Amino acid sequence: MANSKRILFQKRRLRVRNKLRKANAGRVRLSVHRSNKNISVQLIDDVQGRTLASASSLEKDLGLAGKNNVEAAAKVGTAIAERAKKAGVNECYFDRGGFLFHGKVKALAEAAREGGLKF
Fold first, then answer.
1. CA quadruple 93, 41, 9, 104: dihedral sign
2. Going by CATH, does the domain composed of 2-114 fall within 3.30.420.100?
3. Residue-level pLDDT at 65
4. Cα(45)–Cα(95) distance, rounded to whole angstroms?
5. Spans of all domains in the chain
6. What is the pLDDT of residues 24-54, one digit of tens each?
7. For residues 76 and 55, is the Cβ–Cβ distance under 8 A?
8. Within its chain, how far is the Cα of 67 from the centroid?
């Protein structure tokens, strides 16, 4: 059963990513990954195949190591918005992967929007 759950997650992730690529050609992708303990996010330029900025709850300067809650996700969202501005990115599209848009993923997205990112 665990194997079938993983396969369904991978299908959902690819389905979301392919729909976003068709609709938002040429824009930077804000990709989110959530584990049981941490959350991380990357700004990816798919045309060049480069990561422009990233933030994670594992980073020592954020002071969130081991904290797995909505507040930690919001701080990561604020951090990625600041780093995106430094990288010269104002608009992106939100790639939630196979994760549902609620809880930590939603808190990260709202904090990034409040920080100035548009998606």
1. negative
2. yes
3. 65
4. 12
5. 2-114
6. 777 899 999 998 888 999 999 988 889 999 9
7. yes
8. 17
CA–CA gap between residue 99 and residue 104 (Å, rounded)? 10
- pTM for the structure as a whole: 0.86
Task: Convert the pLDDT of each residue in 54-73 to its tens digit.
Answer: 999 988 888 776 667 899 99
Looking at residue 40, its amino acid is S
Based on the number of CB atoms within 10 Å of its own CB, is 31 exposed (0-12), middle (13-18) or buried (19 or more)?
Answer: buried
What are the distances in angstroms from CA 46 to CA 42, 67, 72, 82? 12, 30, 27, 21
Mean pLDDT (the chain) is 89
How far apart CA 71 and CA 52 sit, in angstroms, is 24
Task: Give the type of residue at 101.
Answer: F
In this structure, what token pair is assigned to residue 81? Answer: 């918005």
